[in-house]
Design a protein that fits this description.
single chain; alpha/beta; TIM Barrel; three-stranded mixed sheet; 11 helices; S-adenosyl-L-methionine; 4 iron, 4 sulfur cluster binding; Lipoyl_synth; lipoate synthase activity; EC 2.8.1.8
């Protein structure tokens, strides 16, 4: 008889307490500006979507990371699916996904994901995951299985995958994706290189750029994409330097977003970026 083992997952204060560069919990948070309006995620569509996800043992990064925009996305019937469990092997201070030793992969998850996408009648799906440094391929084969199942069930659906960095496993991961590439390959840089020790410990800026470039070299017709959080201490010139680096590494698309603190135990917001500044970045990038 198999015995269930309780797996400890750390969130909030217990998650960030062991970081070398710890968030300052005594700091008074910046007051949110008038242009940021966040509604509590409620409504029949939200409840219906959550019920559908739980029935298939699925989760969204929107829920696990306590994204404040969850209500807006859920009410439009869209979500970014998070595969390979709810426990991450890393402890990034900007994110509230739990840290710890992950459970074994669910072999039925790709099938459940495809069935849910069909039931929701989605046309475009985003699949992301926790970091799985415990797996020899970093989880690349599980991504592939999800892509295979979705294309078998709903071949018309466009698939974007938002992947971890596959630390030390790039060649293995890319070899797996060669057999079944997505429609969009996304890997977030998250922040400027000088802030990596504080914002993204355990990751490497140059390594992430290499992942994006290597995928593009093997799949020149597949769109590559990355993302940055703003308001964590970067300046404009640093952001522009990242834009240049992304272009030099053949990345096609970039999303920029305002960082919002999940709790006082997480990385503090240093600045709220104005709508005009976002427009400026857009104009420069295009």
């Amino acid at each position: 008889m198999l015995q269930e083992v309780e797996i400890k997952a750390l969130k909030g204060e217990s998650k960030t307490a062991r970081l070398k560069i710890k968030p300052d919990v005594t700091r008074t948070p910046l007051r949110k500006p008038s242009w940021i309006r966040i509604k509590h995620p409620t409504g029949s569509k939200v409840d219906k979507l959550k019920k559908t996800l739980r029935s298939q043992k699925l989760f969204t990064v929107c829920e696990e990371a306590q994204c404040p925009n969850l209500g807006e996305c859920f009410n439009h019937g869209t979500a970014t699916f998070m595969i390979m469990g709810q426990i991450c092997t890393r402890r990034c201070p900007f994110c509230d996904v739990a840290h710890g030793k992950p459970k074994p992969l669910d072999a039925d998850e790709p099938k459940h994901l495809a069935q849910t996408i069909e039931k929701m009648k989605l046309k475009y799906v985003v699949i992301t995951s926790v970091d799985r440094d415990d797996l020899r391929d970093g989880g690349a084969n599980h991504f592939k299985q999800c892509i295979d199942e979705i294309r078998h069930t709903t071949p018309q659906v466009k698939i974007e995958i938002l992947t971890p960095d596959f630390r030390g496993r790039i060649d293995k991961a890319l070899e797996i994706f060669n057999t079944c590439p997505p429609d969009v390959f996304n890997h977030n840089l998250e922040t400027v290189p000088s802030l990596y020790p504080k914002v993204r410990p355990g990751a490497d800026y140059a390594y992430s750029l290499k992942l994006l470039q290597s995928f593009k070299q093997q799949h020149p017709d597949v769109t590559t994409k990355s993302g940055l959080m703003l308001g964590v201490g970067e300046n404009e010139q640093q952001v522009l330097n990242v834009l240049s680096d992304l272009r030099a590494h053949s990345v096609d698309m970039l999303t920029l977003g305002q960082y919002l603190q999940p709790s006082k135990y997480h990385l503090a917001v240093e600045e709220y970026i104005t709508p005009d500044q976002f427009k400026r970045y857009k104009n420069i990038a295009t």
